[in-house]
Amino acid sequence: MDQCPDDVGRPPVPRHVPAPEAIQAGVFGVDLDGPLRPNAEEVRAITEEQAQELVCLRLDMDYLAWCERTESDLATSRRPTTRKRREVLPTQLQHALVRTLRQYRDCLAAYADAFGSIASDELEYYVQAVAAALAPERDAAVQQRLF
Q1: Of 31, 32, 54, 28, the residue nearest 40 (C-alpha)
Q2: Mean of the pLDDT values across residues 64-74?
Q3: Which residues pair with 41 in a beta bridge?
C-alpha cells in the first residue's frame, strides 16, 4: 500500500513551536549540556516528515475502506476470484485497517508529545486536506489498475 504522493502542488506544512515540556523531557535529544532545542529548520523537517507519513497513512486508510466497500483485494484492487480468498478478505482488510489506524494515531500522539495537542490537531487538519486533494489522483490510479 505504498501510496505516498510527491510534494508537488501541496500547501505549506503548518509551523509549530516545540512544547517546553517536551524539550525538558529530552524528546528532541539530550547532550552533555542538557536537553536539545531544535532550531527552526529542524522543526520544519520534523513536521514535514510527520505530515508525509500521516498523509501516506491517511491514503492507505482510504484505500482500505474502498477495498472493504467494493470487496476488492488489497493487492489487485479487484474482487477475488476464489471462494477461499473471498472468505478471508474481510478479516485481512479489518486487520490492515486496525494496524494502519494504530500507526496513524501513534504518529499523531508522538507529534502531540513534541509540539502539543493544538499543533497535533492542526497537523491532522492539514493532513486530511492534503489527502482529500490527492484523492482524485489516487482514484484515477486505482481505476487505471482495474481496466
Answers
A1: 28
A2: 90
A3: none
Place of cell 494504530: 102
Which cell is 7 given? 510534494
Helix (H, G, I), strand (E, B) or coil at 99: helix
Of the candidates 48, 70, 66, 69, the residue with the CA atom closest to the CA atom of residue 4: 48
CA atoms within 13 A on the CB side of 45: 6
Closest of 58, 77, 65 to residue 141, by C-alpha = 77
Q: What is the per-residue pLDDT across 118-145, written as a single tens digit (0 to 9) for each?
A: 999 999 999 999 988 887 655 545 444 4
pTM, rounded to two decimals: 0.81
Residue whose entry in the numeric block shows the C-alpha cell 517546553: 20
